[in-house]
Each structure stands twice: as C-alpha cells, then as structure tokens.
Amino acid sequence: MGKRKETDIGRLDLAQLMLSDARFNLQHRRYRCAISRSYYACHHAARACLEAIGQPLLKTRSGAHRACIKVFSWHFIRTKILSVSLSATLKDLLELREAADYELEIGNIEKVANQHYQRAESFLHEVEKYAQTQSAEPND
Asked: Which of the following CATH numbers is that of domain 10-129: 1.20.120.330, 2.40.160.20, 3.40.50.150, 3.30.390.50?
C-alpha cells in the first residue's frame, strides 16, 4: 500500500499529529505554539468521540469550540463514560490557547506549556483507550 496522504488521516490521527507538534514546539521553546497544539490535540480527540457516536459538529464557526466542549461533556462526562477531568482539560486548554494567541504576557509560560502538554497527552491516552474498547465490541 502506498503512503497515506495527510488529507486521508482520521480525526484521532490528527489529534496525535497535533500532540506531536506540541512536543516539537516544547523542545524548541515555542511555548505559545505548544499550548495551541496541545489544545487542538484534545479538540480533535473530543470531536473523534462525538463523530464515533454520530454527533459531529456540523459547522466550524465562532463558538464551535465551546459547543464541542459542551456536547462532549454531555455525551461522555455526564454519562461517566470518560473521566470528568477531561472536560476540565478541554476548558482549561481552550482558555489558555486563547491567552497564548492574544495576551502579551503569560506568567511562567514554560511551566504552564509543559503542564498542559502533559494534560493533553493524558486526554489522548484516555480517548484512545475508549476508542479501542469500542472497536473491540461486536457490532449488532
């Protein structure tokens, strides 16, 4: 089989790519970019969960990120399918990503970027574990 094009990747693959980019940016002391990529890794992982249950976000417009958090929390956190900490991670990373994009000062940015990268890594690990259990279940 030939090489897969980047446009052919699935949403969880995209989440992993974003996490890899976050790690690269951390290594190169590009903390704002690392924060952004950490957030987007979680965002795409959350969207992968929603798409898996037939709840894709229909439009990417202003407010879509908060809508993703709300719908993800409704279907996966409220129902205790996934850990409540994932909802907090999404919310915190979105706020931090916005600060990284727009604020001139972010205190202790190196430490903050590293901590949030670790949270994103845990987020993806839990979502991937969930996805593996779903793919292992027999279809009706």
From this structure: 1.20.120.330
